[in-house]
Amino acid sequence: MDQQVTEKPYILAIDDEQLNLELLQFILEKNGFVFQGTQDNNSFFELLEQRLPDLILLDIIMPRIEGFELCEKLKSYDQYQDIPVIFLTGKVNVKDKIKGFEVGGVDYVTKPFNEQELIARIQTHVELRKAKNQIEQQAERLRQSNALKDRMFSIIGHDLRSPLSAAKLKMDFIMRGILDPTSADFKSKTVYELLKTMDEALNLLQNLLGWAKAESDQIQVIPENLDLREIVEQTFRLLKLGSEHKKITLRNNIPESTFVYADLNTTKTVLRNLLSNAIKFTPYQGKIQVNFKLEKDRAIVEVQDNGQGIPPEDIPKILNPNEHFSKLGTEKEPGTGLGLVLCQNFVRKNGGTLKIRSTVGAGSTFYFDLPMGKEVSV
Ligand code: ADP
Questions:
Q1: Would the CB of 207 count as within 6 Å of ligand 1?
Q2: Does residue 275 have its Cβ closer than 6 Å to ligand 1?
Q3: Which of 143, 228, 280, 283 is 20 to 30 A from 360, alpha carbon to alpha carbon?
Q4: Interval between CA 327 and ligand 1 midpoint (Å)
Q5: Per residue of the chain (378 residues), what is the pLDDT tens digit?
């Protein structure tokens, strides 16, 4: 059963006769609507600004501004364009009726009002507008999921295919004796490159799956006490290939027995992405540290590098989920712009926020907050 409490529709009316407004108020409130009325077009626009109505009732013979003109003016504002307008009239001829539809009205109600007719017309247009909004929202969701599907196919088709093809080619060369397994640099060069390519492909595949799950709301976050220092150690081991190759020092500054209350898989994914980025964008012999601070009962985890840094104008692009901003690493390592979008999503799911501090040429710090866990005695 739908548990949602639906808000009462809000109707705004403008009519130069106070008596008409009072009658409208009586009828509409009795029938479950929220009502505001005004005789004056300045206060009409003020009321519009305060709260957008679900429908407007507009008297077409008003002394200061003619009703049709007012409707035209209303429809010229983007934010009011979609609000249905019903004209309140005395007797009108067909020509005037057509004019009313031309300026954006949706219906007429003739005075003196018949309560049932008035309510039926209002309800029809309020419902119609609601249905239109729902269809528009569904269309937007479809557009988004289509874009997601296209993006996934493009990543699978290009970003994932190229490392796999490169690895296959290399193995082919080994099979055919073009690359000699007994040569001095076979392990340090060929095997290293193969491993690195496979690592990249695996990392990308994990991100791709994580991202697709997050986009379709299938991520389950199950918080538990996590030993932060240990998770950072595990991630260092996972990324050893890249850091050792670039002779980058990795330092785990998380104190022993620091526990956060977060979901294991998503926290691991965040740390893996932040640390692999730090390695990717830090040159040879750089330094990467993972720091910990306690701020107002929240754990702040920082991944700090002394790499190339990020220009200020790129920072908003990096965290924009629709942008997929990506640059090559210090050794021309390619990317997809998926990692940080995923990190941001996963940090949020754990109740935190991901932030960036960076200075071009000096390095970047990516940091996020998590709830503290409980001390665990062994
Ligand atoms: P990818 O690494 O696949 O490009 P990310 O979403 O992980 O995707 O990162 C997006 C972009 O943010 C990177 O391409 C890079 O330009 C920038 N970036 C991320 N981390 C760092 C970092 N530690 N130092 C400098 N730039 C970074």
A1: no
A2: no
A3: 228
A4: 7
A5: 444 456 899 999 999 899 999 999 999 999 999 999 999 888 999 999 999 999 999 988 765 567 888 999 999 999 999 999 999 988 778 888 888 899 999 999 988 889 999 999 999 999 999 999 999 999 998 988 888 788 778 778 777 888 888 899 999 999 999 988 899 899 888 998 899 889 888 888 888 888 888 877 788 899 999 999 999 999 999 899 889 999 999 999 999 999 999 999 999 999 999 999 999 999 999 999 999 999 998 999 999 999 999 999 999 999 888 888 889 999 888 888 889 998 999 999 999 999 999 999 999 999 999 999 976 554
CB of 326 closer than 6 angstroms to any ligand 1 atom: yes
